[in-house]
Design a protein that fits this description.
single chain; 2 domains; 12 helices; globular; binds nicotinamide-adenine-dinucleotide; oxidoreductase; NAD(P)-bd_dom_sf
Length: 294
Amino acid sequence: KSIHTLAQRYYSTNVNTVGVIGGGQMGAGIAQVLAQVAKKNVILVDLNKNVIEKSLIGINGFLQKSVSKGVITEEDKENTLKRISFSDDLNSLKNVDFVVEAIVENTEIKCNLFKDLAKICKPGTILASNTSSISITQIASHTNEPQNVIGMHFMNPVPIMKLVEVIPGLQTSEETQKTTLKLAVEMNKTTTFSKDMPGFIANRLLMPYINEAVQALHEGLGTKEDIDTTMKLGCNMPMGPLTLADFIGLDTCYSIMNILHTQLGDKYKPSPLLKRYVEAGRLGKKVKHGFYTY
Ligand code: NAD
């Protein structure tokens, strides 16, 4: 609690430019809120040029809707867009003050990226990961400044959801924690802390619930509509678990379940049906086809 108070009241970040890596559902949202709410300059990097184009269209569309609703002005929209630049080259992050990584949920790919970032970024740059489940301590061990590595776990969709889970690794410094909390406050987010354990708090609780819904579908306990409507209308969930899984991305759900399973035991075994959907490329809303079609 004291570190929250310190960060919010007395500490201001020297963060002017933030690099966001991965222009998918999460990266685009993080870049937008950094530019729109925290008024930071943002460089959004993705290896895939099509993704870059898609994220620009997505951000523009979201801002346009806010203008139509009267939430922001046309000038706010233009200023936000001016603050975001796009790149397919990681070297463009050599002068940023802070990085938020939001690439695919794969331990090896993330660790390799952090190894590269440690070589590219200037000393002292904070390297935050938006991972849903991978150990921050493990990611940090691939850099030469593990004290500057931290988990900054945003929720989907980033412009709407209030929470950021902050996860210090074993060697994360207090200075890094304070700057991260302050940046989250500048983005108008509320923070919680989680220990660096598989799935942290949010996904340790959420994923077994989603996985059980997939398993229930697999066993024929009900149709997908029966399962979702029961939880929505019967338990007052804002959306059913299978709809939510489509929204998160079934590949991401499967990766998180695998990490929980490997590190915490058989209680967390992913449903075989979840694996089948991923093998079929039915990854959810982002590809317009998961349990439902969009
Ligand atoms: P996504 O599939 O929409 O986007 C991932 C992006 O990363 C893709 O655009 C891909 O081109 C890019 N990418 C892959 N490897 C790269 C590399 N080496 N360098 C640069 N770009 C690379 O996935 P997402 O849903 O945005 O999830 C991204 C991260 O955020 C994951 O770690 C996930 O666990 C986490 N997360 C997801 C959610 C969610 O609800 N989807 C919520 C919180 C956190």
